[in-house]
Queue: 4 jobs
Job 1
Amino acid sequence: MFDYTPYAGLPETADEAKKQCVLANRILANEHVLDGYGHVSVRNPETGNTFFQARVVAPEFVTYDDMLEVDLQANIVTKTDFRAYGERVIHAAVLKARQDVFAVFHGHPHEVVAFSTTGMPFRSLGQFCGMFWNPLPVFDAYRSGSGMLLSTPEDGAELARALGDAYGIVMRGHGFTMTGNSVQQMVMNSIFLRDNTKMQLMLLPAPSAEIRYLSEEEGRGTEKTQYSDISLGRCWKYWVARAKKAMPDLGDF
Amino acid sequence: MFDYTPYAGLPETADEAKKQCVLANRILANEHVLDGYGHVSVRNPETGNTFFQARVVAPEFVTYDDMLEVDLQANIVTKTDFRAYGERVIHAAVLKARQDVFAVFHGHPHEVVAFSTTGMPFRSLGQFCGMFWNPLPVFDAYRSGSGMLLSTPEDGAELARALGDAYGIVMRGHGFTMTGNSVQQMVMNSIFLRDNTKMQLMLLPAPSAEIRYLSEEEGRGTEKTQYSDISLGRCWKYWVARAKKAMPDLGDF
Amino acid sequence: MFDYTPYAGLPETADEAKKQCVLANRILANEHVLDGYGHVSVRNPETGNTFFQARVVAPEFVTYDDMLEVDLQANIVTKTDFRAYGERVIHAAVLKARQDVFAVFHGHPHEVVAFSTTGMPFRSLGQFCGMFWNPLPVFDAYRSGSGMLLSTPEDGAELARALGDAYGIVMRGHGFTMTGNSVQQMVMNSIFLRDNTKMQLMLLPAPSAEIRYLSEEEGRGTEKTQYSDISLGRCWKYWVARAKKAMPDLGDF
Amino acid sequence: MFDYTPYAGLPETADEAKKQCVLANRILANEHVLDGYGHVSVRNPETGNTFFQARVVAPEFVTYDDMLEVDLQANIVTKTDFRAYGERVIHAAVLKARQDVFAVFHGHPHEVVAFSTTGMPFRSLGQFCGMFWNPLPVFDAYRSGSGMLLSTPEDGAELARALGDAYGIVMRGHGFTMTGNSVQQMVMNSIFLRDNTKMQLMLLPAPSAEIRYLSEEEGRGTEKTQYSDISLGRCWKYWVARAKKAMPDLGDF
């Protein structure tokens, strides 16, 4: 049931990238980071300047046949009548601005939405989520009349500018957008930001001056160990095995 | 497993309305908004002045054969020995007072019961539940000796007056009653009010003056996007697919 | 799947009492009120002065064949090598002191253990758990060296005295003991005390002076509606149906 | 489904120790104390100075064939290409320093990671987790550049010194390491420390001066009752039965 082969690095074919995109959707739904809304994208390794993303469907039920190819201006490349996510502009803009990014998440776990309204920084409390030692930027420049959604290429570009070179960006009263230099890292970052935020909420009633967040030295150290092939591979295979157990239709996907 | 067809709008037949009523019961139990108590109603589109509701049964186990037809004076139209919910008077009164309402929810999720006793307003913290930017009215006029239940047509009318033209009304120490101009909107409103309240509870220990609720401008914007056909349809199909997975007896209902 | 027959009142045979005892164990485990520890008892309606209880086994896995008969001095009546719960003295003493009681619960849900250490009263926040409008007594007279367990008939008698004529009694740092004039009422009281305590914990950070607990008038009213045959029957059948779905080995028990 | 045989005491063969190690991994994953990370170890009763532990794999999916044998200097004894956990040095050092210890846990439940950053003591709130009446030591001497991981024999020895003769030790911003004089006691201690910490978090907003923790007298009493054969055996068999129900691949392991 558990796959013991070492972490294989980035996919080299479009087909493999699409399969990882399906798994990422399923994993993030199974771990309760995505619900009816939200989406992920994976860069096409064969082109470099297009990406894969599901058509409009809840992540828990995404299949291989739902995959659309989109370019970095957010145009749909696939010839299809399928409906694409309006917020694909976020993914296009981030993948355009950040050549180091291979995969992008956008979603709305309740813990992050709630904490984002407090004005308090998102900071690492633990080794496993030490990559967030440097508080994440927070976006709060919604266009008037937008319903707090980002739907134009300009909206996407504005978010990408605010993201800068951070791993991710919190969106006040909305959710967060997260990156990874692989699908595995994007999934780990997304799950662990949710988990770290859950821990920050647990501690809201504690005397705030006493709380020991990770120091920069500690945080930088954990990035090395958490993003090692052995750690990324182990987590990914754990999440895949759990998703396959909960979602028998995945088969030996 | 996921149904990709567009949102179909209101049902045109009594049969289809009854089926949506069964699904709404199952979805709201599956998403933990209804437990052993609580009920939903759906207007009969063929008459306009009667509605469907289950006989006395826990929502998680409602079937098509449990459906009763009730009129807007809360009289049971169906010839049957089935026992009807005493609080059907709430549904009758709201559907009578509000011609714009097609479906009504009444239930008691713990989060809402608890928060209703604090005297604090129910207000939107996030984009996805932005329809509650305008704090919901709170009902607290229980008849002496009623056991805090509404069981007469007069009780129902009093609640409907307090509801006014809001989406829903919180009932202090009891739960809430919610409306929708479709079954899909009633289900979304009910789930998202529970979720928003859960987030408000998470933030009870945070410095309250710092919390950023949605502004009126933001809230009005989210109503447009959240209630769009694409958004309503996607969520409904997500909740239906989850309910069918958890409740195999639904089959291809 | 749902049993629509009306509430049948107290069992008249020992066999039926034993079956209700098995179901109560399974329900309270399935609803997360009992874990590896804890136990329930049901008076034998054929004798009046003996009761049924499982041998030492986790409640989630209790079967009909585990039933022991015990008298009100806590002697084991059944000829058997089975090991009995040490704390059966609680059940014996309560069933001896309270002729109005037909069934007893003793368990340790985390919410109640935690809240019991705060010195704050256990009071009703909602209609559905309105039977606790009158704060429950709290027991804190553990014998030195007892490990906070009640294991002698004298320990049991002391608890029964502290219980008085209340529905139940909280045990500081330990859990609670609950009664019912039927198995159905005992199960409802046990689940709803846990739920009410969960809500009290949710509100710990709220301004305590503002919280509106149920008044005596409201609480007394809810006792009538919650303990009606229609309400007790509906809840019991809901919990039975859920337990049977989660525990297929129960069959059509 | 439930195993009624009395608690059998320590395993006498390497084979039985390995089987208990598999079950401990599965139980601690099933009860949400271990996630993708974390590991347990069981002393080899045939040698006394080696122990069993899984190769690199998520605990939820550990099988008998994953077992490695490791010595107390953390050298891998088994001839294999399998990859071993880097933090096996913790297990080696504790089993070397503490001849009374038969099994060791190391993991990172969110509740413990969060609470460990507050500087507040970990103390017993309830009878069932009364073994923690004496606040656990807290480790906070991470080597610079270590990423807060313990990966050398010296790191392990330092932790073992800080542990002293306590049941376990909390690691600030990381998790905890727990011991037992049997696999059953190690599992109980690990689950109940997580549970006690969950209760401490529930009470963070309560007036702290009013909270009644267990006294030394109460705590020492609960150690006797909780660690009795009857109590350890009942809990272990409960957790085994639950794991087997949730993980059918365990069969009649």
Job 2
Amino acid sequence: MMGGRADGVSATTARIMELLKKPHGHYLSGQELSRHLGISRAAVWKHITALRRMGYAIEALPARGYRFSSSTCPYNALEIASGLTTKVIGRPIHFHEEVASTNEIAFTMAKESAPEGTAVVANRQSAGKGRLGRQWESPPDGGIYTSIILRPAISPREAPKLSLLAAVAVAEAVGGFLSHPPTVKWPNDLLIQGKKVAGVLAEMNAEMDRINFIVIGVGVNVNVKSGGEVFSPEVQAIATSLSAVEGVEISRVALLQALFGKVEEWYNRFLRDGFMPVREAWNRYSGMAGRRVTVRQIGAAFDGTVLGIDEDGALLVKEERGIVTRVTDGDVVVGR
Amino acid sequence: MMGGRADGVSATTARIMELLKKPHGHYLSGQELSRHLGISRAAVWKHITALRRMGYAIEALPARGYRFSSSTCPYNALEIASGLTTKVIGRPIHFHEEVASTNEIAFTMAKESAPEGTAVVANRQSAGKGRLGRQWESPPDGGIYTSIILRPAISPREAPKLSLLAAVAVAEAVGGFLSHPPTVKWPNDLLIQGKKVAGVLAEMNAEMDRINFIVIGVGVNVNVKSGGEVFSPEVQAIATSLSAVEGVEISRVALLQALFGKVEEWYNRFLRDGFMPVREAWNRYSGMAGRRVTVRQIGAAFDGTVLGIDEDGALLVKEERGIVTRVTDGDVVVGR
């Protein structure tokens, strides 16, 4: 079995689910499973119960055994871990039905020495966080809410690079499920048709010259209806979802696996080749170059034209009077 | 009463201690105290018991009342808070007899929204932390171990400035108790006669472009014997204490009050006037300019001559071949 570890799911439980997925509509008897795995039939039953609790619709007929109808795979750690091809990212996966904020949980786990790559995934967030202390609306059942722990041996000055790296990874992962490529807005929002579909919130714990760990939080509006039923009126006007744009439901499991894959790919590239490839990809995805923007910072605001991000990840904005300003904080509003 | 709030000490308890300190050797009767404060004599007794638990040697004679012999003031929150002249720093003070690490406690409190200025003070640390994940030896009863929560509205890129600011504040506070000024070693060690007497460990929680909070941890070897009984052999060769250098015991309460005062003074100056005054003071205290040093970083080491710190707090080191390198991480070893 190619796959990662789903925290809290035993290897035997995972193996039984794997076997149940194979015969496509046929029944597997308790006796077969018991013999094949070298465990008692009572133990088989215990694992079946665990799988049902995880959301798998498993039928049991006394004379025939167990059957899984594969059209209804749930969203859980086992599904995400099955077939995951990463070496570090998403190993292990900690899945929660509902949390206040996946970033909070990952932050606490990282403080308690969780290894690099550990991912927290939640089906729902009750207090999702956005940049600068803002809220991130997390409608139930339709979004991806995940936070990944990284422990790069870099200085806090370099941390913004990882946030931009994450934006590129999200753009590539999401792009694979769309008929048109998404665009990245500085620093790390993902837009489709000018509306937000995903965002990154990176938070770190650091000494002055060394990052202890960084938590990369990603929120993606996947199968969220863009109407007023799920988003608040303010958010409705500026946000959309992948399903609303494409007109089809998208598998959160498949998208999350792609996301973990892209984060790993880009993180390894960054560690090996530095920030330049990330910078090039970000500038390619951003489509911000040449756009007129308004930069809003604490106590300051100015207009200018975007040149791109520089080698440190700062946004270069050329003001009217010709001066090029490096923007490292605040908000950037793109003009029409 | 001029002073700050000692967390966990009631205002009445504090007031009674204040009254007991006044008559210098005379007794105050329970009746007098009870009348003066408008509380029962049983309540007076409860407060006396609380004060005794805090380490105050209070005598009680049935016929005469209570007496405090002022030569034996303990090290506790009430003593530190009494006479504290700061507005923000050390308000309130959370005092602990022993903790693993004051930085850990302050970090957790900051996560739980403790206000700017909150200070954690411990008499002992069982797992004191130094820079870059190293240990900080914290011999019992002789040192100052404190961590202060700050919430400056600055970017993580600017965080090293606060660490250097803390080094300047520690140098000035400690310098007030010494016959010769101490020197600061990059980034934030305090040396006397080439041996370490104090250190700063600043840790932050941050988004990519915004500090949520920063914890400034300060350790000072005050009345620690510099012999092998208290420091490990490795540390003995490179560390000393204020009392060992000056030949007298120094009041930890007075030094901590001075430290809080200096941190507040420099922090306000930084918020008002920026980093330039800190930079000038640091360069003045460092005595590193012109010194030959070896810089040791991950995967790199080079020799050069120190020029000072620049406007971002990086150490400028001029290499043989004339190139000036900005050092922002790693260790700097000063040559003889």
Job 3
Amino acid sequence: MRNLSISLALLISLAACNTVKTDDRTVVREIYARALSDSAAMKNLQYLCTHFPGRIGGSDEAAHAVKWVTGLLKQMDLDTVYLEPLMVRKWDRGEKEIATVNSEKEGKHELTVCAIGWSVGTGNDGISAPVVEVRSGEELKALGEAGIRGKIVFFNQPMDPTHYYTFDSYGESAWQRVYGASEAAKYGAIGVIVRSLTMARDNYPHTGIMHYKDSIPQIPAFAVSTLCADSLSGWLKQDPHLNLFMRSTSRELAEVQSYNVIGEIWGTEKPDEIIAFGGHLDAWDITQGAQDDGAGVVQSIEVMRLFRELGIRPKHTLRVVVFMDEEVAQRGAKAYAEGVKARNEKHLAAIETDRGGFTPYGFSIDASVYTVARIRNWQEIFQPYGIWFFQQGGSGVDIRDLKPMGIPLLALVTDSQRYFDVQHAPSDTYARVNQRELQLGSATIASMVYLLDNHSIQ
Amino acid sequence: MRNLSISLALLISLAACNTVKTDDRTVVREIYARALSDSAAMKNLQYLCTHFPGRIGGSDEAAHAVKWVTGLLKQMDLDTVYLEPLMVRKWDRGEKEIATVNSEKEGKHELTVCAIGWSVGTGNDGISAPVVEVRSGEELKALGEAGIRGKIVFFNQPMDPTHYYTFDSYGESAWQRVYGASEAAKYGAIGVIVRSLTMARDNYPHTGIMHYKDSIPQIPAFAVSTLCADSLSGWLKQDPHLNLFMRSTSRELAEVQSYNVIGEIWGTEKPDEIIAFGGHLDAWDITQGAQDDGAGVVQSIEVMRLFRELGIRPKHTLRVVVFMDEEVAQRGAKAYAEGVKARNEKHLAAIETDRGGFTPYGFSIDASVYTVARIRNWQEIFQPYGIWFFQQGGSGVDIRDLKPMGIPLLALVTDSQRYFDVQHAPSDTYARVNQRELQLGSATIASMVYLLDNHSIQ
């Protein structure tokens, strides 16, 4: 009889196991079906992009966007919606930037440029100097002070197209935009102009953040469209002595009050244990901020809608966090992490979506090997929806400050082929977002949240 | 000593195995890197789409496209390039179609329509009748002759958005376009107007092939844009008695000579054993045929270029087949299969690419379980490039006639989210194709061909 009871117990536990799995599959199928049938997220994205474009931290557009998102969440039958205050740095682009090539041999040409975010201006009169092109840090170093002093350095290292994951290419080239000004100023440059960080060959300039290094003179930095970068490179070959005129009236202003926007559905069993997810509301001043990161914002809100509309009552508290200031100083991320620590909150996991509303294929997971293995067990449930990638790796800048608290961090990973075509450029418009691709992201996060809520990963 | 020799043999074989794998990985990495660095395929696609749009079988555009592809292959240092003759059916759309809603209550409205491919015309005077809307075969049947005789049937079953793989949704809805006319004519309808097979809500009509059933009267069939379909449905709710006027002068003409275009790189070891791959050159008359299937054509040509430029000498013969007439009667597919049979050729495998130049994620494989398992062994080599899906399933209509000969058939499977946004519509333009996504397809086929050439799968 003993053997029989063991067999029975085993059978029951296997049956229970199967039941759970079948339920999981059914719920996940419902989540995807509901998400793919609905246009709410796309309509939200269109509204956000067209009413509050250029909503960089500290701008009026950002303040209006905070109000709009708060109102949207308040209409959603959540258990609470509130603001988390923080201070953000403020920068003003000033008048439209000018960059003009002057060459006796090649003629006079306007370049399509923008000041890189947080660049100093050139002064009202602008600056004018010969241009020296470099394609690597080694070339810069080799030129040295003799080749650079008094000149404008043209950083023209293209993004390497050979990587499958375009964020890898970005990682290799971004130094030009972020640190190029200080690197060139070390050798006496008076300005820099940087090839836009995109593999698209078009006429949009791509901005982004830059940082000046301490005790190095702060010189103005522009981004130039890839088409104009190629032209400039060609003209320089014909006339190495051509002059470039740059003018920008950008400047930093006093810090401004802003907010993260937070909404919650309280857990029925363990309301003190939180599953957080979010994207960032701020977007560069010259963009609509559709893929970066309006998509992440509306997807995170959509997760709440899916739980409510499907009548799923979570056991733990679901918290959507709409972060402020990701693009500049991650003050929203810091405020959120400090709040979690101060309140001694328990998080089961935090999920970030900030890689565009493209077809997702998995999660990068910053957690123990054991946790990654537990999550990977759900691969079979996700596979019918093209989700197969569950790998240990970095998450995202809005949740990384939660890492010291031992919280498992997940980042939604999407098809990255088109991301840098539009990132930080005027071409990042809602019209370039596909509703189905966007909603696959919403459904993937909602499904992960559902599974995290129903199964222990620790 | 015996045990030692076995261990040594094992070690050597393991080492050999590892060497092969490392080589495979290196070559595959080179293939992807080269493909992602090059714009040749995109330039070919742009040329094909802008110089030979609307190249449906039998058209002048198709004839010009055949010449252009032949010339392109002849410039490529292949071992042979030749044409495979075949006869294609020819159909002429005639004058721009007209469809006008006439309602005392709702006013007069033009609808954006096109005749479905191979529809009969309405006669010069057009036809006019009340409209009856149906959303399923059951609704049609329920209406019966009493509800349908003398009327125009409006098929308005939307594609089901809840499937992840949009070809599944297409499969469920395509009957309206393909067989709707005959189904309605059975009950005495005088014409049909069919909601375009797309999930996009826009104002493009989507054409495609239709078939009349024997001994049922042939009535004219139009496709209507989804926006106009929604409008028409709304007007019908307000005025169930509204009239629709349809006019089309489309007609079938005599058959025309056409060709498959074939190019080969002869194998160094087994030139009589062939790995074939291709897409179809013909495209609907109202489209540029970019995703369907200019993408497949240029990808297949790109495979040849990649082998040549990387200096890879295949052991078996590589054959690119640019098929004619996929959209209508697959005469190219039939001619090719008949040729293979008549010449008693041995094929190691045939690969079709006809699901758009979107990011690929794997292959659907029509072969024995054993062959599928062998191919799945390469998953690890492909995974760094997002290729993870290797499943037994249907291949494609241009290679399926090779199945009776026992040839393993593979179809490149791509991210299908955007495919039906443009399929068979004027919106299927090269500008909507992303170069990286397109080239990932070229590289994935080239890598599969390389692995098939180097490892037995049978």
Job 4
Amino acid sequence: MSQRSRLTVAVVGATGVVGRTMVQVLAERDFPVGELRLLASGRSAGRTVSAAGRTIEVGEAVPEAFEDVDIALFSAGGDVSKDLAPAAAARGATVIDNSSAWRMDPAVPLVVSQVNADDLEWHEGIIANPNCSTMQLAPILMALRDAVGLDRVVVDTYQSVSGTGAEAVAELEGQIQAHVAGAPKAAAVYPHPIAFNALPEIDVFLDNGYTKEEWKVVAESRKILHLPELRLSCTAVRIPVFVSHSEAVHVQTTRPITPDAARALFATVPGVVVQDDPARHEYPLATKAAGRDEIFVGRVRQDPSVDGERGLALWVVSDNLRKGAATNAVEIAEALVGRDWIRARSRRAGPVGAPA
Amino acid sequence: MSQRSRLTVAVVGATGVVGRTMVQVLAERDFPVGELRLLASGRSAGRTVSAAGRTIEVGEAVPEAFEDVDIALFSAGGDVSKDLAPAAAARGATVIDNSSAWRMDPAVPLVVSQVNADDLEWHEGIIANPNCSTMQLAPILMALRDAVGLDRVVVDTYQSVSGTGAEAVAELEGQIQAHVAGAPKAAAVYPHPIAFNALPEIDVFLDNGYTKEEWKVVAESRKILHLPELRLSCTAVRIPVFVSHSEAVHVQTTRPITPDAARALFATVPGVVVQDDPARHEYPLATKAAGRDEIFVGRVRQDPSVDGERGLALWVVSDNLRKGAATNAVEIAEALVGRDWIRARSRRAGPVGAPA
């Protein structure tokens, strides 16, 4: 592949947990990166990041930094995205944004790669990457929607601290060390100690008593699945796990389905792996999903509290930094390249991804 | 109170986590103990346990050890209870058994003190103490059953390792120390490391795909609440917490109820404390519930996925060693004393709990 057919890719928030994973996933998946531009706040600019065997200096994320960028992967928080995504898009970049800033904007597609990549067609420069808790659930719900219809879904989450960011990982680590040393556990990132605890508070509280995280699962699932009336309830809980979110899912379907049929169905979904052999203690596990790009589903069983074989109980686990964030963002970029839906500048640069 | 009006109390499994808590709760609540007989397997017999300022030697749990015992609190596993509870009852003791051995026996009352103490009336020498996950849920469900009726309940649990026993507490502690030391994490009590993980396997798997722990919540709730057809689904998950179980609960009620009305209702239930001030980050927490005898409920909100204000989402936390096991067992003993329902021998000894 010639340098001309390669893309200029910017990663905004490149020093963060998700940003660093984005850089790693781009390299692992051999995405056709020509120039890789790592950007961050002025505070982090000047630092260096090792990526694909090179050491790259981090530049400041300002509008001018997006000149000649084809694809900009944002993971620097909602405020940065609100400010800079339009500036990047105005310069011809296609923005894939991991914050919540644009997700519910009707003009912005919200895409899980294996669920609704067709929504990429109507993007106008900004594409939203869903929240990690929603991400791993959507392909499972899509499969059930298409096969037997969705009536109601209850999801309770067991979320890792890396979903909050590097400072939360450090806080858990510090509390663990304090525990071993017999010292008090200081909490600053979270309102209470996360070590040896379960915190039913992720993101801010809304007027309806749900947290914003819980409501994201509701609203984003509806948008991604094209089911604006989907009935879904969620309790989102942070637990002392470093990487991977786990979810207990209870689905009421419109038509009957057996656990065997559900397992066979899930096995057909790209990027989904069925792990369901209780006799051998095999089921999705946070520690085993960490570092993997797939969504793992298991503990599939008929829920007898729903009549007529229309209930399923499931356990769904995925690496929140990868499929829950970085991997899906790169998959969106791949889909754009594959369908030639990158915007103006990259089209000017000739066919993207064509052999040299 | 004279020595004669006091009771001879045996604690079986006195060296275990729950057994030690039983000894502690008996002392804290000033239960009218005359002689305290601590019993355990032959392996643990001869050890000493400190209780109420005294050091007591642990005797071997054999049938003869229950001679002259009024109340025997068992927490030594199902096999010990199956063997020895009938032997103790045959000698006139009233057994309050914390194992799962007798819970579903139609001739054995299964009692949560503030829910169905009236069931104690038909005991024939053995009374079962419910599973910890069921225990903390039952008073909440009772209140809703009585006020607005129960249609369907979904419960996902976040359970602490102390529910497994002292060896599981040591295993988590060891894995945490290994993490800090950079050493590998050995798992023996659980099939996978529990540190920084969420294990969706508690107790053995049943043919229907549920674990026995999950099915206990279903079957025991039905028996305690006198609702043999109650529709309930549960996923039971072990997380790296030392003490207290947390539960995300989603209730469909028969008639409408608002969150305000639900909070007011819960506040009337003995032993239940409403903690629900999200603006101040106040909600039930495992670390804060540890060492307390109450059941804490919060995050009360309308579940909009159920029509007609018939849905509630809740977060329920309680110390699994106390209300989930030891405290309820002692509360049952108190209820028996208060109602003069201790069996033959104690009646022979004169009015129980009467002033000297």
